[in-house]
Design goal:
By secondary structure, the protein is of the alpha+beta class. It has eleven helices and ten strands. The protein has helices at residues 3-19, 22-29, 35-43, 62-74, 81-93, 188-221, 233-260, 265-290, 301-311, 318-330, 334-342, and strands at 103-106, 108-112, 117-126, 133-140, 143-150, 154-157, 167-175, 181-183, 223-224, 227-228. The strands form three sheets. Strands 1-4-5-8 form a four-stranded mixed β-sheet, covered by helices on one side. The protein is globular.
Length: 344
């Protein structure tokens, strides 16, 4: 982490500590957008960190954006930073700037007719009800198009994930303006999936770090039979396993960061799969150590674990990415299999 990234992290931690309290997260899950949090993130340039200045961004490196998204996940921040970043990156490639209001990504079935009418639908669109615009890819007669559409043009059916976050169903039938449609290459849908998987991997790692910290702290504060439960060998063993899984996730996240600029499919696949595997182990241990307390809605542990369970399923779960990794190595052939594996 360079000096600029350390400054970003320190600023973000202070802001999130003040504005992303458990009460704010609870209110978000009850249907109130964290407007003050989003405004402050926008004013400090953190919602567009790593995006080009000419596209309305704050400049810097792509790693800056990944840092913001990861650290926000440590606090279970109920704002669409990942979706806003993906949208901004896609729009910047078209020479466009991104709005300050939340912008989300819709992955679904959309078609543009000859009269420039857009129709189609998508499910599980993150934070759609609170977004100002929706960015999507649609099929037109002359190829794929990237579209930027005001959220008001969509019919939105509100749905929530297991984490209580908006994952809405959208449908649309509207006429597009010429300045909101851009030709893109056929790989764009796959690029969006890879970006989404990479960012969900970073978010999971951030939340897992928080889960580890909370669990260790609780084990030192909770006493049983006259001493902290962290002194019991069984608890120490569980904490060691938890720490090991988080450390493995950290290394996997490094590979994801290194591969993000080129969207290296194999590294992102392995990172998303490995961190997804860690989610099961870590959340089980965290709740076992916390006991019944951790399952209550009043405890902030569930803010992290419910999001972890949801994020691991988005943009491909570990089984899907493991299958891709397996096919990659199987395609190397018997003579090259060992060399391909050890080269990593």
């Amino acid at each position: 982490m360079n000096e600029q990234q350390q400054l970003i992290r320190d600023t973000l931690h202070r802001l999130l500590t003040d504005l992303c309290t458990p009460e704010v997260v609870d209110k978000s899950e009850s249907g109130t957008f964290a407007e003050k949090l989003w405004q402050n993130l926008t004013e400090t340039g953190l919602t567009v960190a790593g995006l080009p200045v000419e596209a309305g961004g704050s400049g810097g490196d792509l790693e800056d954006s990944l840092l913001v998204i990861r650290e926000a996940a440590r606090f279970a921040a109920p704002v669409p930073l990942a979706e806003h970043f993906i949208a901004g990156l896609l729009l910047s490639e078209q020479g466009q700037s991104i709005d300050s209001g939340p912008v989300t990504i819709a992955v679904g079935e959309f078609v543009i007719s000859d009269d420039s009418s857009l129709s189609g639908s998508a499910n599980d669109v993150a934070f759609a009800r609170w977004s100002s615009q929706v960015v999507l890819v649609a099929q037109a007669a002359d190829g794929l198009k990237l579209c930027r559409v005001p959220a008001a043009e969509f019919e939105i059916v509100q749905k929530n994930s297991v984490a209580g976050e908006p994952r809405d169903a959208l449908s649309v039938n509207t006429r597009l303006s010429e300045d909101s449609v851009f030709s893109v290459d056929p790989q764009t849908p796959e690029r969006i999936k890879l970006m989404g998987a990479a960012l969900r991997a970073m978010m999971m790692y951030g939340a897992l770090e928080s889960v580890l910290e909370m669990t260790v702290q609780y084990s030192t504060e909770r006493s049983q039979f006259g001493r902290p439960i962290s002194k019991f060998q069984a608890i120490q063993q569980q904490l060691a396993i938890l720490a090991g899984e988080v450390s493995a996730s950290q290394m996997a996240s490094h590979s994801v960061v290194d591969s993000f600029s080129t969207l290296g499919e194999l590294d992102i696949a392995m990172g998303k799969a490995r961190i997804g595997e860690a989610v099961s182990v870590c959340t089980d241990i965290a709740h076992q150590v916390h006991g019944a307390m951790g399952y209550t809605m009043e405890h902030t542990l569930n803010h992290r674990t419910r999001r972890l369970w949801n994020w691991r399923e988005e943009y491909g779960n570990e089984r899907e990415w493991q299958a891709l990794v397996g096919r990659y190595f199987a395609d190397q052939g018997a003579d090259k299999l060992w060399g391909a594996m050890t080269a990593l």
